[in-house]
Amino acid sequence: MKRNLHMILYAACLGCVCAAVLTAVAQLTKPLRLANEEAEKMSNILSVFEVPLPGKPTHAELKEIFEENVIPPKQSDKLKVYKHAVARVAAERRAVEAVAVEFSGPGLWAPIKGLLALDPKMRIIRGITFYEQKETPSLGGRIEHEPFRSGFVGKSIRSADGRPGIRIVKEGKAKGPNEIDGISGATNTCRRVEAMVNEAILQIVKEGAGDK
Amino acid sequence: MTNSTPPICGPCGGGICDGRGTQTLKAGLWSDNPISIQMLGVCSALAVTTHLENSLVMGAALVFVCAASNLFVSLLRKATPRGVRMIAEVAIIATFVIVFDQLLKAFYWDMSKTLGAYVGLIITNCIIMGRAEAFAMRNRPMLSIVDGLANGLGYAVILAIIGAVRELLGEGTLLGHEILSETWYPANELAGLAPGAFIALGFLIAIFNAVGGPREEPKP
């Protein structure tokens, strides 16, 4: 009985000490981590809009380029859309050149998050980036690389007969305006990516954008 | 006690580790190297060594975690009840791994993304658990730190060599600087993939064993 008590007390104490240490470190590093995450998000949005970035931008530089080039969505917007609009002069109205919509969903191993870039009328896909994925490297992980990503460029968000949604088909078999080549050996990942992109597309269509 | 003076212990000063400090250091780095002789922790050694920089950071992670966890396991060795011995070891190891992971995310974000899950997987690395159980649980703290450092460095050296070879052969660069020009050196893609890592590791283990001599196996 006394031995069991000793074990429980020891485990409880060790657990508390470890938890305290980790909480302290997490709190101390939180501002830096959040800044890094924000910088990465800005960098991802800028890259899907193909805005050129300097080699290794500082956080401040990145923020400046971001504010010059992107109008983020308002809290009240139902559909969160990032608009690529270059600010020429402060007062001048900015012309929207492209928009980007976030999408996310469960991947095979962990959540996948990305951005879908579209033309301002939200009908044609301009590009896609994945900024968070933990799929199998060299199989599902290839969604982050070419040629998968370039397969999205110029594709319509609707099929030939007007139904919203893309289809990721077997590698090399993409024919229709909304069909995209998948990755052989990564069927599951492709299926999930298709589902989460279509979820975003349905939201776009629901909010009235992306009309034919 | 014998009448010969004990050898001077390297990091600990004469006599504190009963002269076993240099012996422990040499064992971890060379004669009992965790990867090439003990054959532990091979998984991460293959996965992250695509570039030299990744290997160095991973090696640093292991040195830190192994030394720190060895220290604390050793400090608590007399207070730890036998029933929760291994759980306590894992808890201590996990704490240090997560600390390193948080620091990496704060100060070296790109590398954190590159190494990905493998930083967290250090918790499961056989080397660290092995040293905690086999050494730190029955040796004094100072010596345990030396053992942790030595095994960590042994691992780091192997990783650095493999990382350098794979980056050089696979991309012609070292730490991002071009060494073998693209104009005449066709990059060997195999070096960047898993089989290339296996082959490089195999050669390295063979060299280590040939030069260092195999560990004495007790005769049956």
The largest sheet of chain B is:
2 strands, antiparallel
Instruction: Indicate the structural class of chain A.
Output: alpha+beta
Total beta strand runs of chain B: 2
Report the count of strand segments of chain A. 7
Summarize the structure.
Chain A is of the alpha+beta class.
How is this structure best described in words?
The complex is a heterodimer of chains A (212) and B (220). Chain A is an alpha+beta fold. Chain A has helices spanning 2-48, 59-69, 187-206, and strands at residues 70-71, 81-84, 98-106, 111-118, 125-132, 167-169, 179-181. In chain A, the strands form 2 sheets. Chain A has a 5-stranded antiparallel sheet. In chain A, strands 6-7 form a two-stranded parallel ribbon. In chain A, strand 4 and strand 5 form a beta hairpin. In chain A, helix 1 (2-48) packs across helix 2. Chain A is globular and about 75 Å long. The relative contact order of chain A is 0.10. Chain B is mainly alpha-helical. Chain B is built from 10 helices and 2 strands; from the N terminus they run ααααααααββαα. In chain B, a hairpin with a 2-residue loop joins strand 1 (173-174) and strand 2. Chain B starts with 20 loop residues before the first helix and ends in an 8-residue tail after the last helix. The relative contact order of chain B is 0.18. The model of chain B is unreliable at 1-16 (pLDDT under 50). The chains are: A alpha+beta (212), B mainly alpha (220). Chains A and B meet through helix 1 of A and helix 4 of B.
Secondary-structure blueprint:
The complex is a heterodimer of chains A (212) and B (220).
Chain A: H1 2-48, H2 59-69, E1 70-71, E2 81-84, E3 98-106, E4 111-118, E5 125-132, E6 167-169, E7 179-181, H3 187-206
Parallel strand pairs in A: 6-7
Antiparallel strand pairs in A: 1-2, 2-3, 3-4, 4-5
Helix pairs in contact in A: 1-2
Chain B: H1 21-31, H2 42-47, H3 52-75, H4 85-107, H5 109-115, H6 117-120, H7 126-134, H8 141-171, E1 173-174, E2 177-178, H9 189-192, H10 194-212
Antiparallel strand pairs in B: 1-2
